[in-house]
Amino acid sequence: MFEKFRLGKRGENIIFTIFILIYVAYCLNSPDMSFESFKTVITIGLSVGIIYGLVALGISLIYTGLDVVNFSHGEFFMIGAFAGLTMFNVLGNQDWIFNLFPEAYGWIIYVVCLFTAFVSMGLFGVFIERIFLRPLTKKGGGYTVAGMGIIICGFGLSVVLINVAYLIWNPVAKPFPAELGLPMEIGGLFLPITYVWMIFVGLFVAGGLWFFLNKTKMGLGIRAVAFSKDVSNLVGINVPLYISIIFGIACAIAGIGGTLVGPTYQVVVFMGYIILMKAFAAAVVGGFGNLPGAIVGGFTVGIFETASSFYVSGSHKDLYAFLLMIIVLMIKPTGFFGVQVKMKA
Amino acid sequence: MLKVNQLVSGYGTVQILNGANMKVEKQSIVALLGGNGTGKSTILKAASGLIRSWKGTIEFNNEEIQNLPPHEIVARGLVQVTQGKDVFPAMSVTENLRLGGFILKTKQKLKDNLEKVFNYFPRLNERKDQLAATLSGGELQMLCIGRGLMSNPKMIMLDEPSAALAPQIVLDIFKNINRIRKDGLTVLVVEQNVRMALLLADYGYVIKDGVINVEGESKKLMYDESVKESYLGGTKANV
């Protein structure tokens, strides 16, 4: 009986057009239309977007490698931020570092924090995968078959990790006062230096991952395992080991994302959830399972969200990422880069 | 070289092999024949570690290898080549071949083996930068065999190398299999194309309902009535 009410292609187009007109009208109605504020919006959008992109990268990586969606990925992001903060608190009291590098003191400590988050989250990810996820695959025969169990395990892990972090670090939001220097002037625009760090470190990590996957032997193995576990077995790749490595790398990248966000915002136990959701939207927008798509999707979601909350309404900030996701899904269900390589018949 | 003793195996709870026995001598080509669903591929999968052996043993070079993880079996020199289309379509031909040599330690060995494979299959050399998804059926099969040869195996197990290919290409591939044997490898071929397989092989096994039904020199098997019987309803061994 619902067939009567279906809009059809044309009806959808009309609704889209109306929607976009309303959106543009809202934007034009904004009190601040200067080019300066537009530049600020774009820069903040890029810096937020790269964070979504990094987490989306991890989600996509786990999705291609393990064939499951990891719903506890936001918590790796949060614990990564805490790992960075802990290292920062330890190093912040050391006078000898200050005496050794009086000029570059702040950013050396910050780089060490990023590195700590990367390594510790990588090891933590491998630990979680081996202890909690791997046993689920024993009965079912592989990750694909045990998929639903692992998704539910992911939700459970998310709750457990939040509460463990709550016990260790308590729920008070903590500042991450990294001393990175004065705001930077780019094109007549004064930006907190942490934004610049976010964009550049994020791009560096994404580029590093690209290099690792495409130019190294281990990366070749990871791509093979992501495509087919059976064929990878037959060419002599240690598939269980590589699955752990994939999970570890995804978590390490999320950890770096957490430490990057720390100085700009604050480090809270509950920061993982909303990041996970937005990164999920970013991954869908870019094409689920596509790694460059994850970064592009992150940028798109970040800019759209920042622009919308600046020009339309800031009180519904968390809504725009999902709005964009729905729009992209309606226009191109595979996302921007979701192309399948098909076999010749 | 490869010895299968009373092997029982299957998928999930479905038992396919009911105690299969077979033996592959060094530097020989052995054909494993049988109709659909008789357990030919199951023997290969058990030997290469993709599925578990429930009972019985598989010996390779006088070492029991049943239920070892697949990558360790590859490291011991036993490689399975699956049916045609199991390549990595989004990677180039060279990358596919490099994956075949994944267990090799040095780059020099990888280079040598790549040259060796291109020597067997010059067509792959012509197409080395193309994506594997764009290859034709025959080229895919060559790529699969080439990938198997990349890891310097002692023995190679081919799962239906002639499936869905034109006779001319099948002939070409079988010639190459013969060359591979002459270069010192042992080959086990699983086939449905009985006539071609027996022309190629030295020794043949016919499997039916999960046990070896008939075995013998391939010249004898060609005229064996029971082989024809095993294929009733399928391809007959008419020479």
Structure description:
The complex is a heterodimer of chains A (345) and B (239). Chain A has 13 helices and two strands; from the N terminus they run H-H-H-H-H-H-E-E-H-H-H-H-H-H-H. Chain A has 345 residues and is mainly α. Chain A has a domain at 41-271. In chain A, strand 1 (184-185) and strand 2 form a beta hairpin. In chain A, helix 2 packs antiparallel against helix 10 and helix 2 packs antiparallel against helix 12. Chain B has 239 residues and is α/β, with parallel strands linked by helices. Chain B has helices at 40-47, 70-75, 93-100, 107-120, 122-126, 137-149, 167-182, 194-200, 218-222, 225-230; strands at 2-11, 14-24, 29-33, 53-60, 63-64, 78-81, 155-159, 186-191, 203-208, 211-217. Chain B has a six-stranded mixed beta sheet, sandwiched between helices. Chain B is globular. Chain B starts with a strand and ends in a 9-residue tail after the last helix. Chains A and B meet through helix 8 and helix 9 of A and helix 2, strand 6 and helix 3 of B.
